[in-house]
Amino acid sequence: MGWLRHFTVWLPNTEALWHELLLLRELRADQWAAQTIDPLILAESLLLTVQDASASPEFCAAFSAAAPLHRLEERIEALLTSPEPPYQCNRWLLSGLLAALIPLVTVLLHS
Q1: Which candidate, 66, 83, 73, 69, places its Cα nearest to that of 32?
Q2: What distance in Å separates the CA atoms of residue 100 and residue 84, rounded to the nearest whole number?
Q3: Helical H segments across 1-111, by residue range
Q4: Where are the chain's structural domains?
Q5: Nearest partner of 30 among 103, 80, 98, judged by Cα
Q6: Which of 8, 31, 36, 43 could make an S-S bridge to 79, C-beta 3.0–4.6 Å?
Q7: What is the mean pLDDT of the segment spanning 12-29?
Q8: Are 63 and 53 in contact (CB under 8 A)?
């Protein structure tokens, strides 16, 4: 995905969209890790890791100094808040969608 970023640098808001994508990927990874580890411990270890990475410049990790601090705050807040219930499919919505697609199917059947 990095090469895609380099090829689309001329598009407007590319940098902002890239940072949003990184944040969403980090949040998804944090939620996946929180399924097996206590979210409070995970948030604390994230904070300690970032503090250690900024203290020693020879530390080689994926924590960029250019990353804004609000991303770290958002990740920790997301870990500490209660998780949202999984989305459940509404059968009426699904049946309405199928009813809307019936005319498209009948067009395909005409010869």
Answers
A1: 83
A2: 30
A3: 2-7, 14-34, 39-55, 69-80, 91-109
A4: 2-109
A5: 80
A6: 43
A7: 86
A8: yes
How far is the C-alpha of 88 from the C-alpha of 111, rounded, in Å? 39
Long-range contacts for 4-8 (Cβ within 8 Å, ≥24 apart)? Answer: none
* 61 vs 83, higher pLDDT: 83
The residue among 50, 72, 69 whose CA lies nearest residue 61 is: 50
- Looking up tokens 């580890």 gives 37
13 and 26 Cβ atoms separated by less than 8 Å: no
Average the pLDDT over 7-31 and give the result: 84
Q: In angstroms, how far is the first alpha carbon of the chain from the final one?
A: 44
Q: What is the pLDDT of residues 22-34, one digit of tens each?
A: 899 999 999 899 8
- Alpha carbons 4 and 2: distance in angstroms, whole number: 5
Q: What is the pTM of this model?
A: 0.57
Cα 111 to chain centroid, rounded = 46
CA distances from 70 to 12, 20, 36, 73, 74 (A): 22, 12, 25, 5, 6
Structure confidence at residue 25 (pLDDT): 92
